[in-house]
């Protein structure tokens, strides 16, 4: 039996190989080595939730009708009897209440989307804080960044499809934001909606975007993303024997094939469990889109909250005197919308997209980096990351300010006023405190390397002195603590040469030097072998 | 090749429609959503009505688009609390005022009325408007007051509009002021539906 199975397997493999020459490729892939760390799973979660999205999404398209044509509901839901609604909304109700398993599929799809975006953001944070975006991975950072933006587009376009009151108001906000764009805004609005809001074409357009355009792009970019991971090889955390020139880990087959395959089912299982237990987006409670009603405590999906929060945070009048909407030469410029919904997200995402280059200017380092940073060893980057997160979280909190105010019995207005100040102050504080903590941790690492671990054993010397015995670190432990780059601020050539001629490119160099000083002026250098040597002499 | 395709995506591109709603001289105010008419005597002090123009529910085409522009909030205040805006002395009736329900920020329905403070709150981004004082912004991201719909009472006691709004309702846009001075006081020039 076993022999027959073996020969059948090898026969099939041979048949395929003779026609595709895939054997050597499989061998190459299967023996590819990957380092192991729990934080490398975050991107996997994103990938697997995307697969879940594709599977559940195909099911949903079998029942969803992307049309804004009117029908009168006559399905089983009592509360909607006789209500006029779009076919999109009616088909959403139909698949929720009449198609067996339909509601579960909708819930799986929605929860998977929330997890997809969350996993992408968390994965991105991991890559940021460990410096995995450095050369040669800057391009892959951009690919990942684009995937993150596309996940927002996928999420928002899908969220709008049921054509319910909540998502319809979301679209209306998009329309209002679009209009605020100078000169072209009103035409872009007409272009998106095929005329006046809401029109009859936006749902079909969003549908095509949601099931074809965006997932197609995501699929293609995921392929590119993974191809580049293979090409660059995976980064690794610092550890014994790990350098910028090798990869220490386990082979793709069988170890990671089994792990990843299993992990896919874990992710799918968790999504299915959450979807089976927790209601998400019960559109039948909201009702079909109608431009008139709206209820309090309405929030978009979490990944859009920050834009909504920014819109809430921005005052229409600065200090009640300076209008944030200007009327200049008969034209209207709405800073109160442009700043929170266009400029701030633009700067935020622009900074993220180009961060690898910003840091490369500061380090001036052209080498390839395959060993990850421990976040403490790049205090300014870690501080900036924390500042960005705080900035983002403030916007998210403001996006939920009505819920928070109700929950904690706060004044909604006071909360907003506090966050209006906080958005400027707290990220800076977060940066300073984080950088300080990083320095502290680095100094503790130095202390450990130089003097070893405290053992808690107290020894009394013959002459009466008490000391605590310190145990030196093992070489492996020490490796992790001392193997990081000690980068000094850039030195640049002077502005004028010896003949007094001004040097070209000096200003750019000067900018890079300032940036470099910001990053590396204050730093804690790793323990050198000499320091270690003299410290161990001092002890004995 | 591509330009006619993109060119057709915006419908008729007539963005002047932003500036016109269904309201005309004499259009009666009706309850949202059932369309029953409202008499001045129905509106007690402190009450608020969600209003659509009479005839909206009978529209064959563009009903949602018209509703998205025409919805109004009608409230009655104690006339002593009401600060009448200059130039709008005859736009209200015995403490009854009507304001566009579409937020001047990004267009959500400003649906929450706080009777005690006379404040209208938009639940989307919490722009707050003082109905007693020309629906001026008292908090939040909106900059402009809600446009007021001039109302009167007809012979049968129903509340009617005196004209369309005198400015485009809803969020701002680049040429909004052009549309404001665009003969809007002339209610005969409306949208073509």
Automatic annotation (TrEMBL), chain A:
- What's the protein name? Cytochrome bc1 complex cytochrome b subunit
Annotated ranges, domain Cytochrome b/b6 N-terminal region profile: 12-238
> What range does the record give for the signal peptide?
none
The cofactor required is: heme
The record's top EC class is translocase
Q: Which reaction does it catalyse?
A: a quinol + 2 Fe(III)-[cytochrome c](out) = a quinone + 2 Fe(II)-[cytochrome c](out) + 2 H(+)(out)
Ranges for the Cytochrome b/b6 C-terminal region profile domain? 239-440
Transmembrane helix in keyword set: yes
Q: Which residues cross the membrane?
A: 45-65, 108-129, 141-161, 207-231, 252-280, 333-358, 378-397, 417-434
**What superkingdom heads the lineage?**
Bacteria
Q: Which PANTHER family match?
A: CYTOCHROME B (PTHR19271:SF16)
Per UniProt, subcellular location reads as: Membrane
Xref: InterPro entries: Cyt_b/b6_C, Cyt_b/b6_N, Cytb/b6-like_sf, Di-haem_cyt_TM
UniProt keywords, alphabetically:
Electron transport, Heme, Iron, Membrane, Metal-binding, Transmembrane, Transmembrane helix, Transport
Membrane-protein topology: Multi-pass membrane protein
Enzyme Commission number(s) from the entry: 7.1.1.8
Kindly give the SUPFAM superfamilies that the UniProt entry links to this protein.
Transmembrane di-heme cytochromes
């Amino acid at each position: 039996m076993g022999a027959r199975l073996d020969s059948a397997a090898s026969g099939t493999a041979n048949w395929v190989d003779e026609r595709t020459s895939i054997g050597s490729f499989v061998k190459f892939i299967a023996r590819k080595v990957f380092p192991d760390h729990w934080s490398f799973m975050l991107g996997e979660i994103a990938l697997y939730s995307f697969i879940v999205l594709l599977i559940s999404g195909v099911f949903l398209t079998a029942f969803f009708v992307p049309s804004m044509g009117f029908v009168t509901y006559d399905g089983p839901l009592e509360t909607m009897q006789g209500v006029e609604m779009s076919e999109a909304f009616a088909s959403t109700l139909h698949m929720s209440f009449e198609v067996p398993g339909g509601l579960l599929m909708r819930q799986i799809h929605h929860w998977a989307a929330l997890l997809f975006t969350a996993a992408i953001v968390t994965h991105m944070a991991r890559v940021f804080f460990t410096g995995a975006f450095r050369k040669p991975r800057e391009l892959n950072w951009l690919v990942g960044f684009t995937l993150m933006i596309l996940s927002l587009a996928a999420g928002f376009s899908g969220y709008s499809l049921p054509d319910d009151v909540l998502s319809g108001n979301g679209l209306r906000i998009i329309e209002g934001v679009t209009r605020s764009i100078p000169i072209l805004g009103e035409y872009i609005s007409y272009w998106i909606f095929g005329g006046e809001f809401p029109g009859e074409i936006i749902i079909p357009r969003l549908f095509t975007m949601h099931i074809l355009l965006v997932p197609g792009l995501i699929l293609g970019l995921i392929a590119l993303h993974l191809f580049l991971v293979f090409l660059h090889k995976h980064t690794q955390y610092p550890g014994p024997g790990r350098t910028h020139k090798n990869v220490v880990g386990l082979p793709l087959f069988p170890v990671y094939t089994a792990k990843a395959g299993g992990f896919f089912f874990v992710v799918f299982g968790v999504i299915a469990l959450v979807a089976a237990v927790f209601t998400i987006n019960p559109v039948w409670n909201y009702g079909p889109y109608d431009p008139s009603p709206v209820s309090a405590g309405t929030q978009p999906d979490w990944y859009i909250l920050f834009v909504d929060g920014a819109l809430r945070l921005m005052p229409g009048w600065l200090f009640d005197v300076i209008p944030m909407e200007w009327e200049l030469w008969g034209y209207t410029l709405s800073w109160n919308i442009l700043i929170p919904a266009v400029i701030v997200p633009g700067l935020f995402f622009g900074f993220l997209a180009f961060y690898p280059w910003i840091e490369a200017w500061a380090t001036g380092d052209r080498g390839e980096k395959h060993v990850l940073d421990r976040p403490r060893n790049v205090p300014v980057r870690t501080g900036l990351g924390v500042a960005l997160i705080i900035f983002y979280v403030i916007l998210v909190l403001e996006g939920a300010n009505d819920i928070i105010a109700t929950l904690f019995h706060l004044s909604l207005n006071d909360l907003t006023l506090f966050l209006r100040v906080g958005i400027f102050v707290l990220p800076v504080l977060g940066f300073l405190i984080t950088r300080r903590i990083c320095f502290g941790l680095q100094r503790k690492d130095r202390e450990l390397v130089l003097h070893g671990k405290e053992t808690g054993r107290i020894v009394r010397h013959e002459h009466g002195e008490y000391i605590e015995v310190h145990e030196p670190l093992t070489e492996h432990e020490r490796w992790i603590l001392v193997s990081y780059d000690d980068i000094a601020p850039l030195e640049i050539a002077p502005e004028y040469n010896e003949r007094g001629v001004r040097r070209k490119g000096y200003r750019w160099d000067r900018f890079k030097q300032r940036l470099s000083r910001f990053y590396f002026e204050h730093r804690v250098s790793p323990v050198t072998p000499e320091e270690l040597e003299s410290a161990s002499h001092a002890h004995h | 090749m591509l330009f006619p395709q993109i060119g057709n995506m915006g419908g008729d591109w007539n963005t002047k429609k932003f500036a016109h709603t269904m309201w005309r001289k004499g259009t009666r105010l009706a309850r949202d959503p059932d369309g029953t008419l409202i008499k001045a005597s129905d509106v007690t002090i402190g009450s608020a009505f969600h209003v659509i123009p009479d005839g909206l529910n009978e529209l064959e085409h563009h009903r949602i688009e018209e509703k998205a522009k025409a919805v109004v909030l009608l409230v009655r205040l104690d006339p002593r609390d009401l600060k009448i805006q200059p130039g709008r002395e005859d736009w209200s009736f015995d403490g009854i005022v009507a304001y566009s329900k579409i937020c001047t920020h990004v267009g959500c329905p400003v649906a929450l009325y706080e009777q005690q403070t006379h404040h209208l709150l938009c639940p989307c981004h919490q722009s707050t408007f003082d109905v007693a004082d020309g629906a001026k912004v008292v908090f939040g991201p909106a900059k402009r007051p809600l446009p007021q719909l001039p109302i009167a009472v007809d012979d049968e006691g129903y509340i009617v509009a005196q004209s369309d709004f005198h400015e485009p309702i809803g969020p701002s846009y680049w040429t909004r002021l052009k549309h404001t001075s665009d003969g809007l006081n002339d209610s005969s020039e409306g949208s073509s539906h």
